[in-house]
Each structure stands twice: as C-alpha cells, then as structure tokens.
Design goal:
The complex is a heterotrimer of chains A (316), B (312) and C (680). Chain A is mostly helical and 316 residues long. Chain A is 78% helix and 1% strand. Chain A has 2 domains: 84 residues, no CATH class; 204 residues, MetI-like fold (Orthogonal Bundle). Chain C is of the alpha/beta class and 680 residues long. Classes of the chains: A mainly alpha (316), B mainly alpha (312), C alpha/beta (680).
Chain lengths: 316, 312, 680
C-alpha cells in the first residue's frame, strides 16, 4: 500500500512539474516582465529594460523556470502588481470562502445524487425514472449561470425569498456559514450541475451492479429488497463515485468561478475574474496552476481512497 | 424453420466432401447489416429523432433565417434600445437597438460554427494522438499519455479564458482556442478503444494470415474504433457550445458587432434585474435546447452502436 | 409426499418487443434424499425453471400458470414477504458463476453468515460459528483463515464450495443446483460433485441438478428430465433414460457426445438446424423441424407427455426405442485412418524446447519479480497430415503453445520449425509467405470475426493479403469453401452478428482453410457451442481433416473431443507435456497418474460405468504457475508421489512405440523394462 502511495505521489509530482512548465511558458509569453506595471504604461523602453535586468527578468528561461519552481515549492505564487499584494496572500484571504461554497455544494450534490441514482436504477423505466432522467439531461445541458439566473429571477427578484447576490457584508467564511440565506442560491446553483452528472453516473453504476449475479444470490438468500440495496448494492455502486468526484474537481472549480461571479461572492473565482479584467497574469496563471494542483491532488486522494476501500484493487 | 430435416446420421449418403443440397449449418437468420442495425436502433429512439430534428431546425433557423427576416445588426440605434417585444420586434431589442430575434439567429450561427469546428479540431487531434499512443505502446505510449494527464489537469475554461484575453474575438480564433485545449479528452477514449481492439481475436487472426500492420490499422482497427469517435464528436460539440457560452458570458467572446449566444448573455445579470426578460430567456432557452438536443443524439448514438455489438 | 412438486408450470418473460415463453407446462417432483437431473441446452428454459421456483425471475418475468408445492405448501402466489422466508431457508440455490455471484467487497465469512443471521436471528458471533461449521462441511481447506478472505482471493473450485456453504447454512429441504460445475476444470468438478453427493446422503436434501452435461447426471441422479425449447420432452429413471430412451432428441443428444471409447472413424450423431425462437413457439412438436422422423402430425399437433409407466414419460408421436447405433464410418475418414501410419510420417512441424513465460511486476519501479511459466521446455513433432491433440486443464499452457505455433506469441526459448525452417526468424515478405502454412481457428466465435466486415470480405482477406489468385479465382474459391463448411451462399453478404455461434465457427474454419495451410491450430473449437451444435462442427472438422490432408493441432480441455479429432494426444499439466501417445495409448494404457485422473474424472454419460467408478484420489487445487512445484509439477496432487518426485524432474520415457510419459512411478512398466514401482 505504501509503495502504491509513493508511486502515485511520484506520478503526481511529475504531472505538476509538467503543468508548471506549461504555465511558466505561458506566463513568460504573456507577461515577460512586470516592468510596465511598476513603471507605468508610458515608460521608456530603456527604463523598462534596465528595470527588468535589475530584477532578474532577462535571465535565461531555464534559470527563471527554476526560480519559479522554487517559489512554488515555498508556496510563493508571485506578486500582483495590480492589487499590490502577494498572490499567496490573496489566495489565503479568499480560499476559505471559496472552499466553504464549493465544499457545501459538493456535499449537497452527493447527498442528493447518490440516493437519486439508486432510486432511478431500481425504478428503471418508470415515470419517476424518466422524469428525473429528463431533468438531469436538461440540467446537464444548461450553462450553470443560466440556472443561476433563473433562480435569481424567481426566488430572489420575483418572490424575494433569497437575495439576488451575496451581501457585501459577508466578508469571512464564518459569516458565510452563519448566514445560510445569503449562501443558499450560490450553493444550490453550484450543486445543481453536479447533481445532474453524479446521479446519471450513479444510476448507470447501480444498473450495472443490479445486473450482477451477486445481487441475485443475495435475493436468493431471502433478503428483503431494501436489505439487498443497503447491504450489497450501495457500497459496490458507490465506489466508482469516489473516482468521479476526483475527476470532477476541474468542473467544480469552473462552476465556482461562474457562481462567485454571478452572485458577487468574494472568493477565488471572483478574484480570477477581476484579474482577467486587469490582465493580471500573475494572478491568473497562479490560479490556473493552483487549480491544476488541486485536480492532481483530488485524483491522488481518490485513487488512494479506492485502493483502501475496494479489496479487489491489486496494488501492484 | 421450414428446411427439411437432413438425415440424423450425417455421414451416410452424400458424404463425398461437398454437402448435399441442404447445408446442415441451418438457415441464416436475416437481421440487418451492421450500420443499418445501428441506424434502426437510433431512429427507434424517439428522443434521439427529436434531438436530430431540433438541431436541423436550429441550423435552418440560424443560417436561412436572416435571409427571410433581415434586421440591422451593426449600426447602433440609440433610440430603440431595450424595447420590449412588440412593434415590429418579435422579441424586442437589446441595449444597442438591435432586433433581438435577428440577434439570436446571428448568435446561433457562430455558436454552431464554433461548436462544430472546435469539436472537429479536438477530435481529429485527439483521435490521432490516442490511436498512435495505443498502437505504439511501451515508452512512447507512456510519454504521450503523461502529456495528456498534464493537460487534463488544467481546468479547460481557465486556460481558455486566460488566453482569450489576448487571442479571441473571431470564430476562427475561438474555435482554435477551444479545440486545441480540448483534444486530450477524446485521446484517452480512443486510446482505450484501440487497446481493447488490439487484443481481440480477429486482429490476431489478421496477423496470423500475414496482414501488414498498415492493413490491420486501416481495415480492422479504424472501422471498429469509428463508433467511439463519432459518439465523441457529438459530445464535443455540446461541450464546445457550453464553453463558448461561458466565455461569452464573462465577456471574452466575439468582437462587437459579431455575437454568440454566450456573448448575448453577458449582460444577463443586468437584464434580469432590470426586468428585460426577452433578452435573457429566449437566448438561454435556445442554448439549452441546442445543447440538450446534441447530448440526446450523442447518447442515442452510443446506445445504438452498443446494441449492435452486443447483439448475438 | 415429495419435498418439492412442480405441476404444469409456465413462465413468460416480457421483453420490449416480444414475450419469451421460457417455460411451458413443466412438471417435476423431488423427494428427500433424491437427486434429480434436469438436462437441456442453453435457452431451453432449465435455468428459468429454477428461478421460477424461488420467484427470482428477471424483469418482466412472471409465472403464468401452474403450481409449485413445497411440502404441500403452495408457493405460487405467495406474498413476497413469505416467499423470502422460504428463500435461502427451506429452498436454496447455487449458481454457475461463482466469481460474479459473490459480493466482491464482502468477506467470505460475512457472506456465509448472512442467511443464518437473517433466518435464524443469530448474533454475529453465532452466525460466524455456523459459517465455520458449514465451510468445513463442504471441505474448504483452512476454513478459519478463509473467513476473512475476499472472493477474488479464492480459486474457482473453492468459491464454488463457498456458494454451496451459503446454500447449506440454514439446512434447506431443497437444493437447486444450476450448472454448479460448468465453469470448473474437470478434476475440480469431480470434487464438487462429490461434495453434493455427500450432502445429499448425509442431510437428505432433495436436490435438483440442472446441467447441459449428460455425464454429470448419469452417475448421481435417480431420475433425469430432458428439456427442450421450454418443454419437458422426456422424463425417466436414469438408467432407463440412457439405455432405453424414447424421444428422438434425447437419442440424438446422447449420440452427439463424443465418447472416449468411440471409434473415431464413425461420425457423431448431429442435429441439424437450431432450437426454435421462443417468442413465437409453434403450436406443434417443438423439435419437429430438426427431427428426421417428423411427419405432418408432428408439425400440426403437439404431442402430450405420457408413457406406459408413470415413471417413464415422453412427448413424441413417433418415439424411438433406445440409443442409436452408428455403424457406418465416414468414408474419407476411414480411408485416411487406413493409410495413415503415425510413426512413419514425415515431420512437418517441430516444436523444440519451447519456453514461454510472462513477467509479473511488482513494487515501486514495476520490476519483474516473478514469471508465469506458461510453457516450459516442450518438444513436439507433428507429421504431415497428422492430427495432434493437446489436452489439459486451465493454466496448463496448451493455448499458449498454440499461439507459439502460429506466431501470435514469440517463444522466450526454443524454436518453432516448419518444414525444416525456423519460420518466425523471417521478416517481411518471407514471413508473410511462411504464414500461409500456419493458420488458426480461435475459441470464441463471437470475437474471432471482425464485426464490421461482411463474411465475403472476411473470407477474401487471406487471399488478398497473400496475393493468391485473380479476382475470379478468389470468388470461386470462396464459394467452394462455403459449400465445404455447409453454409448457404447468401451468407456472404451478411455480417457476423447475424449468425449463431456454430455458424460463426464454420466461417472461422473456412477462413482458416482459405490458404490451404500445412498446419491448422484449432483452439477449443467447440467449447463455446451448444451441445447439439458441437457434433455438427466436429463432424465437419473430421471430414475436412481427411480431405485436405493437412496437419492439425486440436487444443481442448475436453479429452473426448480431442480423442475424437486426433491421431496422437499430448497431455499437458502446468506447462509441461506429461504424456504423449495415440488415443488408444492414452485411454487404454495410460502411464501418467494425471492422465488416469483426467480419464476417471470425466463424467461419462453411462450410468453403470459412473456408479462403478471408484474415487480417484486427485486432491487439492492446481498450484500456481508462478511458482510451480519443484521436480515433478504434478506431485502436490499425485497419489503416488514420493520424495524423488520433489527432487528430480522426470524426463519423458518410452512406454511403447510413440508412447511417452514423464513420471518416476508410472502406472505401467516402461519400455526399457523398468518395473513400475508401486507407491508405498
């Protein structure tokens, strides 16, 4: 088991290195030197050149890359000249709020999707199944912001149950947590798309398992249908969900971006959007690499979790 | 079964090599040819037919529509902005005074174009990459797939947005942008399919009869992998349209006065607050309908090909 | 009063397009202490019958009429909650595939204990104790250690024992065994069947043994029911069924199975055509389209199930009387047998010291830590036009050897020599040319043909690749070959999925023969086919062997099939040839204990012979091919093993002209005068 973890870690490191190389290349291409940010857009080329040389932005790419990597390892993601803060500080400030939003949405979507998928599989081809399948298809085909807009239109503007955007008075994670009404629409919006894809997958996994002989044997033992589902089906059908959640991290990050933008929620996503407007490449690419690292980590954890939970997985 | 029964004792009468009039293999049951069977399964699926019809309708609507219902889509008309539906504008006007109905047609053109081109680029590159990787095996496969892993770790929308700050605005640019970052997804699928096919007995049989590698790839592997590729293209189109919607919504889509459905929804938050529902829901509805239809068709295609392979 | 009485049971399964009438008007009864057989081919409804009894029908399935009485209690129409109390408790079932029938993420102990906790209300501790008890009962070695194991850690035979244990855990009155040994090797099958016998003896369970294998029911059942197309066509006391059957289907079925003592020049009884489609069964005798005795009456009216005595009933208007005697030989085959002198043949294929090992990787860097020794130092010669058979159980290396011969795999040691030349050393054009002479027919008829290519293209491909003949000549050859394998010309335009398994094997055979190879390797040619279809393909192969005068290597786990198709037979065990000789040598004069065990454990469709069969002590499970035992690889299961067997590997010694075996303590004296030393 340890060997497996080490091997997977090694793979993960290689992948992150590869991503870092790509991101660095992009960074170097898009924003070779922050000289213009510091000296102003009207600075003289000569001044720009000497500033760049002074701060080491004219060294060979490989050297710069190594500096970049070293910084990353020390969790130094660079500096935002537009916001006059280190990127790491910006991340730290926003991470908690984003984590809360995304985490709550993920948990909500799993709580709904897993039982829903099983129910659909058990009641295959009935009215309930068709209804939910249709609903899932529609949700799956919808851009997440559109769902958000609909929710805002009806639940916020027309019926006034929830606010259309998160109030600017919510500035800390704790405040977000203690004001559920403010966070309801964003969490639901972010969760909805995931519910669609998770329950679809769960339905398929449950159907596959229901067709297996061990379910038939469990019934032949005299177990009630509920016992068969709870004691035999549930675990085996849910195992692949672990992998799926790991693979969904990029989707969650994207959804997070759109939701925070739509609801004006002060998190990493909104930070990214602001940086897009400012052409603040340091922040942008730092977020991209952060996203990549989170994706790789997510997959790693998912793989290890499966290896621990499923006795069939041969670890070599 | 109406064939007369051959003698139970096979071996008496008519044994000298060639069989008698009735081949004892039994009648061949005629089901249908391979592709025809898949097509029949597909068209049996009513939702799939509906989806296909919707797609065709949208294509006609967006490309032929402006010829029947021309409207001003380039000269800003400050007097006519944000009009509600009525008075010659079936769906009202937007903040530039453009007829919304006509704008939807225009937006749809680019959505379809970009969706199609991006999907094609991604699938062509992805298929080649995955096929070569799967066939080569060994270290080459390892390296190629590691590169795919690296690219797949980067959230697609993020990188596309970052690059869109410098490289966006036209159909071609956006298609390339999306297509060139989306290809890793089909490459994994195709590689998986190629690996499975390689181990199949009929490929071994071809090797045993002396077929060259080229022949095996062209005559055996590619035709059998085709179904996966076709299904994938369809889903890629749906995904590309969605990504385009996100890009447009965040404001990095096409250059004014060109537009796409995503761009049209860029100001949607304002529209909703101001109550300009005609600028939000019709466009959004079309978007969802097109993507839904494409997903339905993709799903049905996948089921149709599966049935054919499973049929015994 | 019978323990289980099924009367006039009919089950239908509603699919999206049609309704399958899976079981029609079936009546069976089981007494305590009785084992009753239910035989039939796949699709005949025998499994559905068992599932109907327990109410475990698939989606869309339901009983339309009839009654099922358990100890006089009616089960049809019983509310589900009560039926559940019967399942696993009074009536238990075991299934064919133990791999997929056990929950992969639960331990063995949990799964065996589950019914006990459910039906007896036992605590976890008590249930596990009972589980241990019942696992010992079924002969699972080291049961206490196994309680915490997962299913994938056990071999097929052990898993099947676990399934039986689960069925027994609540001491049921009735046991339904659905193909319990079909997926197992023949030596393991013998062990499992003995367990079932034991249990019936000691615990008095009424057992229904459902199988397609007539041999399996011959020795252990008191009655046998024969099922065809959803109906019972004959039911009799076992001995009577085998020696005095009345239904043509039963007669044909028995006649189509190759026997070990069979004269290989005589054809097997073959049943033309295919079983009927059960979505629209005819209102007449369902066997009529395939029956040589069918008359107008048979095609118009369904015969009732009746007979002179209540103990022997059959459904036929024109019944037969006893088994069929095939007296005439296939002419070409007889001619060939007459002129063939196995020992004087010029060798066409030589396998010299072939070795093939698959690496097993482990650890951080995926280094090779061990290897699966699939083929170890095998030397064989095949003469021109000779048929050599390779027989052995799963894992013995026979399939790998076949792949080495046709070049799908490359040997790690040794060489393959065709007509004096080491073929696979060639490259490019020379290799392609050489491949003409080595062709293969694969095991799985559903995977060996390209699903996207029409039959015409599949048959033409070898000719195109090898650039043989003009287009017209190729067409002619294709049609001739189709005729030879007994398929209509309209098959050319069809795709593989439009054919049945047996038909696809014919196409595969035709394709292999297109190049007129010097050597044809047939890997398990009939294993994937239904019993009544097998004889069609076997007869065909026999005839083609004789007509084309090509050498063939027939690989199968079924000794009877191999013996029927081969002149000489090589018996393989764990990568080695343990015995080599003619069919008669192997059957009448076996020298190696494994060969004898194989012969003795094959269930014979002959009730008397089966009953007289004393238990052959072949113990235990086959060892892992990653770490084969030192010295003689068979020693861990051999009743004659001594110390020498672990130290020195036995070499092949001669036991007669062309007859060799590798054993230190063989069953008969070797040719050089060595007296067979009896085991101590």
């Amino acid at each position: 088991m340890i060997g497996y973890i080490i091997r997977r870690l090694a793979t993960a490191v290689i992948v992150v290195l590869g991503v870092a190389a790509i991101i660095f290349a992009l960074l170097h291409w898009l924003a070779p030197s922050p000289a213009y940010d510091v000296l102003g857009p009207k600075a003289q080329p000569a001044a720009v050149a000497s500033w760049s040389r002074l701060h080491g932005y004219d060294r060979p790419e490989i050297e710069q890359f190594f500096t970049y990597l070293t910084n990353l390892v020390h969790l130094n993601f660079g500096y935002s000249y537009k916001l006059s803060q280190s990127v790491s500080a910006l991340f730290k400030e926003n991470a908690g709020r984003s984590a809360y939003l995304t985490g709550a949405a993920l948990v909500l979507s799993l709580i709904i999707a897993i039982p829903l998928g099983i129910m659909q599989a058990v009641r295959r081809n009935t009215v309930e199944d068709y209804t939910f399948t249709t609903l899932n298809f529609v949700l799956y085909s919808m851009p997440s912001f559109f769902l958000g807009l609909i929710l805002i239109q009806f639940l916020a503007l027309d019926w006034g149950i929830f606010p259309p955007g998160v109030s600017s008075s919510i500035t800390t994670t704790w405040q977000a947590f203690t004001h559920p009404a403010q966070l309801t629409l964003p969490i639901v919006t972010l969760a909805a798309i995931n519910v669609a894809s998770f329950s679809r997958y769960m339905r398929s996994s449950a159907l596959d398992n229901l067709a297996q002989d061990y379910i038939r044997l469990a019934r032949a033992k005299g177990l009630s249908e509920r016992a068969v589902l709870a004691r035999h089906l549930f675990r085996n059908a849910s195992l692949p969900m672990i992998t799926l959640v790991g693979l969904s991290i990029p989707t969650l990050l994207v959804g997070n971006l759109l939701t925070e933008y739509l609801f004006n929620y002060p998190g990493l996503g909104l930070l990214f959007y602001t940086a897009l407007g400012n052409l603040d490449y340091n922040v942008l690419l730092a977020y991209v690499i952060l996203g990549a690292i989170l994706t790789v980590l997510g997959n790693l954890i998912a793989d290890i979790a499966i290896a621990a939970a499923d006795p069939r997985v041969r670890l070599d | 079964m109406t064939e007369p029964a051959a003698p139970l004792i096979e071996g008496l009468g008519g044994v000298a090599g060639l069989s008698a009039t009735v081949p004892e293999g039994g009648e061949v049951q005629v089901i249908a040819s391979g592709w025809k069977l898949a097509l029949r399964e597909f068209f049996d699926n009513k939702l799939a037919v509906l989806g296909l019809a919707v797609i065709v309708l949208f294509v006609l609507f967006c490309f032929i529509g402006p010829l029947i219902h021309p409207s001003n889509q380039s000269l800003v008309n400050p007097l006519n902005t944000d009009l509600a539906p009525g008075h010659g504008h079936a769906l009202g006007t937007d903040e530039n005074g453009f007829d919304e109905f006509g704008r939807i047609m225009l937006g749809g053109q680019t959505a379809l174009e970009i969706g199609f081109f991006a999907a094609t680029i991604a699938t062509v590159i992805g298929t080649l990459w995955g096929a070569i990787s799967g066939l080569a095996g060994g270290i080459v496969d390892g390296i190629m797939m590691r590169m795919v892993d690296i690219l797949l770790s980067i959230p697609l929308l993020f990188i596309v947005l970052v690059l869109a700050t410098k490289y966006s605005g036209t159909v071609v640019k956006l298609s390339l942008l999306i297509g060139l970052w989306a290809w890793p997804i089909p490459s994994r699928l195709v590689r998986g399919e190629v690996l499975t096919l390689r181990e199949r007995d009929f490929v071994s049989a071809a090797r045993v009869m002396g077929a060259t590698r080229a022949r095996i790839i062209l005559r055996h592997l590619i035709p059998n992998a085709l179904s996966v590729v076709i299904v994938n293209v369809t889903f890629q189109i749906a995904d590309s349209i969605l990504i385009l919607a996100y890009i447009g919504f965040l404001g990095f889509g096409l250059q004014f006065p060109a537009t796409s459905w995503g761009d049209m929804l860029g100001g949607a938050q304002n529209y909703v607050t101001e109550g300009y529902w005609w600028l939000v829901y019709p466009v959004g509805g079309c978007l969802v309908a097109l993507v839904l239809a494409t997903n339905l068709v993709g799903d049905a295609l996948r089921d149709a090909f599966d049935v054919r392979l499973r049929r015994r | 009063m019978p323990a289980l009485e099924v009367e006039h049971l009919s089950t239908h399964i509603e699919l999206s397009r049609a309704t399958v009438q899976a079981v029609g008007n079936v009546s069976i009864s089981l007494d305590t202490h009785e084992m009753v057989g239910l035989v039939g081919e796949s699709g005949c409804g025998k499994s559905m019958l068992g599932l109907s009894i327990l109410g475990l029908l698939p989606n869309g399935g339901h009983i339309v009429e009839g009654s099922i009485k358990l100890d006089d209690r009616e089960l049809v129409g019983l509310p589900t909650a009560e039926l559940r109390r019967v399942r696993g408790n009074e009536v238990a079932m075991i299934f064919q595939d133990s791999q997929s029938s056990l929950n992969p993420t639960k331990t063995i102990g949990e799964q065996v204990a589950e019914p006990v906790r459910l039906h007896r209300g036992a605590s976890k501790r008590e249930a596990l104790d009972r589980a241990l008890e019942v696992l010992e009962l079924v002969g699972l070695p080291q049961p206490r250690e196994r309680l915490g194991d997962y299913p994938h850690q056990l071999s097929g035979g052990l898993r099947q024992r676990v399934m039986i244990a689960i069925a027994l855990s609540c001491e049921p009155k009735v046991l339904l065994a659905d193909e319990p040994t079909t997926a197992l090797d023949v030596t393991i099958q013998a062990q499992i069947l003995r367990v079932l016998d034991d249990l019936r003896d000691r615990h008095g369970m009424a057992t229904l043994l459902v199988t397609h294998d007539m041999g399996v029911v011959a020795g252990r059942t008191s009655r046998v029911n024969v099922m065809y197309a959803g109906r019972i066509v004959e039911s009799a006391e076992t001995h009577r069924l085998f020696t005095g059957m009345r239904h043509p289907y039963t007669q044909a079925l028995l006649g189509s199975i190759p026997r070990l003592e069979q004269d290989a020049t005589k054809p097997l009884v073959s049943i033309p055509g295919l079983p009927p489609d059960l979505t629209n069964p005819p209102q007449a005798c369902r066997f009529a389209p395939r029956c040589p005795r069918a008359t107008e009456q048979c095609r118009a009216e369904e015969p009732p199930l009746k007979g002179e005595h209540a103990s022997h009933v059959f459904a036929c208007w024109h019944p037969v009387d006893g088994p069929i005697e095939l007296t005439s030989q296939i002419r070409v085959v007889a001619e060939r047998a007459a002129r063939l002198d196995v020992k004087a043949l010029k060798p066409v294929l030589q396998i010299e010291n072939a070795v093939r090992e698959y690496p097993v990787t482990a650890g951080l860097l995926k280094r090779k830590v061990a290897s699966v020794k699939a083929v170890s130092d095998v030397t064989l010669t095949v003469g021109e036009g000779e048929a050599l058979g390779l027989v052995g159980e799963s894992g013995c290396g026979k399939t790998t050897l076949g792949k080495l011969v046709v070049g799908i795999e490359k040997p790690d040691g040794g060489r393959v020599v065709l007509a004096g030349e080491e073929v696979f050393r060639n490259r490019g054009r020379a290799l392609r040319f050489a491949r003409r002479d080595l062709q293969m027919m694969f095991q799985d008829p559903y995977a060996s043909l390209d699903p996207r290519m029409r039959v015409h293209a599949s048959l033409r491909e070898p000719l195109i690749v090898q650039r043989i003949g003009s287009a017209r000549e190729q067409e002619k050859k294709i049609r001739t070959m189709l005729d030879e394998v007994g398929l209509p010309h309209n098959a050319l335009e069809r795709y593989p999925h439009e054919f049945s398994g047996g038909q696809r094997q014919r196409i595969a055979l035709a394709r292999a023969l297109m190049l007129e190879p010097k050597v044809l390797v047939a890997d398990e040619p009939v294993s994937a086919l239904d019993v009544s279809i097998r004889s069609q393909v076997l007869n065909l192969m026999k005839r083609l062997q004789a007509e084309h005068n090509m050498a063939s290597i027939v690989i199968s786990h079924d000794l009877a099939v191999v013996k029927y198709l081969s002149d000489r037979i090589g018996v393989m065990y764990l990568g080695k040839i343990v015995e080599l000789g003619t069919g008669d040598d192997i059957y009448y004069r076996p020298a190696h204990p494994y060969t004898e065990a194989l012969i003795k454990t094959i269930p014979l469709p002959d009730p008397e012979a089966e009953r007289d069969n004393e238990d052959v002590a072949i113990r235990g499970e086959p060892p892992s091919p990653i770490e084969p035992p030192s010295g003689c690889r068979f020693r861990t299961r051999c009743p004659r093993a001594q110390a020498t067997c672990a130290e020195v590997e036995p070499a092949l010694r001669s036991f007669g002209p062309g007859h060799q075996a590798a054993c230190h303590y063989p069953l008969r004296p070797a040719s050089n005068g060595d007296v067979a030393r009896p085991p101590r």
